[in-house]
Specification:
- With 144 residues, the protein is α/β, with parallel strands linked by helices.
- It has one domain: Rossmann fold (3-Layer(aba) Sandwich).
- Helices cover 50% and strands 17% of the residues.
- It contains six helices and five strands, in the order E-H-E-H-H-E-H-E-H-E-H.
- The chain has helices at residues 15-22, 37-48, 54-75, 90-101, 119-124, 132-143, and strands at residues 3-9, 28-31, 78-82, 105-109, 127-129.
- Helix 1 runs parallel beside helix 6 and helix 2 (37-48) crosses helix 3 (54-75).
């Protein structure tokens, strides 16, 4: 059984690499968003043309990224959403809600300091983890 896993959430650490390295040898295919922050922010204007108003600049990028995100989440068997410490990831919360609405198996990852703020998101998850190693262990368990 091949698992399709979408890795959503913060882009300021190497947690995706840690999961992918730990899952080597498992029958898992990973996908995720564009993690180059500038490329992600500017994709809309780079493809559809410049905007003088920052709102429309961001709007174009958000919609372009939503095409990729929706497809990735819809195709996934499991969606992993990581909430980092440095920034509030509103997009990650949106991705978690979208995955939950689609009935996807949802794994949430964050530190103890976000426990209260993310209690509703955590309640929708099938697992709440703190480390990439725990996510890998879940994937190993599911595939064994």
């Amino acid at each position: 059984m091949t698992l399709k896993v979408y890795l959503s959430g913060e882009i300021h650490s190497n947690w995706r690499d840690d999961i992918q390295q730990g899952a080597k040898g498992l029958d898992v295919v990973f996908s995720g968003p564009v993690t180059d922050h500038a490329a992600s922010d500017d994709c809309g204007v780079n493809i559809l043309g410049a905007e003088s108003n920052k709102f429309w600049h961001d709007n174009k990028g958000a919609k372009m990224n939503a095409i990729r995100t929706r497809k990735g989440i819809e195709d996934a068997d499991i969606v992993v959403v990581r909430f980092g410490e440095k920034y509030k990831q509103w997009n990650a919360a949106f991705d978690a809600g979208y995955a939950a609405a689609l009935g996807k198996s949802l794994i949430i990852m964050h530190g103890a300091d976000h426990q209260h703020a993310l209690k509703e998101v955590d309640a929708a998850a099938l697992a709440v983890t703190e480390t990439p190693a725990q996510v890998v262990d879940i994937l190993k368990y599911v595939l064994s």
